[in-house]
Amino acid sequence: MKFAEEIVVEEFLPTFRSMLAEDLRERGLTQSEVADALGISQSAVSKYAHGEVAQNDRIRDDERVSRLVDEISEGLATGSMSQVQALVEVEVLIRRLEDHDLIAQLHEESMPELKGHGGDFNIHDPEDELRATERVLTSMRRAIRIVEQTSGFSSLIPAVGSNLCECLPDADAIDDVAGIPGRIFDVKGRATIPAEPEFGVSEHVASILLSARENGANARAALNIRYDPDIISRLDALGYETAEFDATYENLGETLGDAFAENPDAAILYHTGSYGIEPITYILGETAEETAEIARKIV
């Protein structure tokens, strides 16, 4: 009797780890850095990277496996993906391959009695909360790197600071929205990110995002920058739909509802300020990365 988990341990994991070790070494990481990234010993890295561990060619040649190896290697090498996110993504792929797919086929071949039945185990939900949470945080980290690497981004930061947010697919409260604790500030001409993204730390921009979604926007992310007529003109010229709303922020849902009633396709929201209220522009997008990329275009 042989379990599908044995196929994972004996066939999939050695192959996958070998591919990851090879890819990370090709990206310039040292043997020690690869060991830290994968949570294994340096001697194990050496064996994986030098082909001393047997690999399954069918697993190695599977496009989905190769694609995930590339995605995780890039994420671990750049720091844009956490080890938790990498683990979750691998687990999801394993469960998919167990469900009448490659691992199920290998399982059936090792135990012919299972033919027609092997691998039918839907243990993990690919869209579970942990995976969704880690995906949002990964997107936020990538967006932060865009902000940090964009020369002149600090010129877009308002006096009150900027924040960058992305929410879970079914978000209905601020705790479902990830943001940057303490906001993004201009420190001596550089956009400064004070801490790693967390959920529930951005009340203001998160409220704008949630209200926009309640009024029909498909956005899952938002970024606030300073208001300037030239900025709005540049965004218009790039093809982004804009809408103005009341600067007082009172009855925000109703106010944004009026803005979207005038332009349902608005991806840029702005107000021109009021007494004691700084003019602000809000960029909406499907991901935090997208909003950061839009901002990069107008610097």
Automatic annotation (TrEMBL):
<feature type="domain" description="HTH cro/C1-type">
    <location>
        <begin position="20"/>
        <end position="48"/>
    </location>
</feature>
<dbReference type="Pfam" id="PF01381">
    <property type="entry name" value="HTH_3"/>
</dbReference>
<dbReference type="InterPro" id="IPR001387">
    <property type="entry name" value="Cro/C1-type_HTH"/>
</dbReference>
<protein>
    <recommendedName>
        <fullName>HTH cro/C1-type domain-containing protein</fullName>
    </recommendedName>
</protein>
<dbReference type="GO" id="GO:0003677">
    <property type="term" value="F:DNA binding"/>
</dbReference>
<dbReference type="InterPro" id="IPR036409">
    <property type="entry name" value="Aldolase_II/adducin_N_sf"/>
</dbReference>
<dbReference type="InterPro" id="IPR010982">
    <property type="entry name" value="Lambda_DNA-bd_dom_sf"/>
</dbReference>
<dbReference type="InterPro" id="IPR019293">
    <property type="entry name" value="ThiN"/>
</dbReference>
<dbReference type="Pfam" id="PF10120">
    <property type="entry name" value="ThiN"/>
</dbReference>
